[in-house]
Design goal:
mainly alpha, Arc Repressor Mutant, subunit A, 58% helix, globular
Length: 118
């Protein structure tokens, strides 16, 4: 009788990474990350809200979680009124490169599919 071999699960299926996978699947998360990846400067809450057409509550929750997992930096300026800016962290920039490749692949795939149907 041969010993059974256990197959190592990929990291994305392990509980540590599953939270990140679930977060990336939530509404507007990819839009937020994509918008920030295309900017060289930080963005304020209302500017981001207008650019992706999202409710304040949803944006607030998504930004909080993205900061918690380390994809975004949140900087608070002690001014009146209070100013808060968001930017990509180094970890977020790494993910931004991957998402850029993913979006490029999607564009190419969808354009290729449309050409075939015409």
């Amino acid at each position: 009788m041969q010993p059974t071999r256990t197959v190592e699960q990929p990291i994305c299926l392990k509980s540590v990474a599953q939270e990140t996978i679930i977060l990336l699947g939530k509404s507007h998360v990819l839009e937020i990350l994509y918008t920030l990846s295309k900017r060289d400067t930080p963005i304020r809450f209302n500017e981001l809200k207008r650019s992706i057409n999202i409710t304040s509550t949803t944006l607030s929750r998504r930004l909080e979680k993205l900061v918690d997992v380390g994809f975004l930096n949140r900087e608070i300026f002690a001014e009146v009124p209070l100013r808060v800016e968001y930017s990509q962290s180094e970890k977020g920039k790494g993910l931004g490169k991957i998402l850029s490749d993913l979006f490029s692949w999607m564009n190419e795939s969808l354009n290729h599919s449309e050409e075939k149907s015409n």
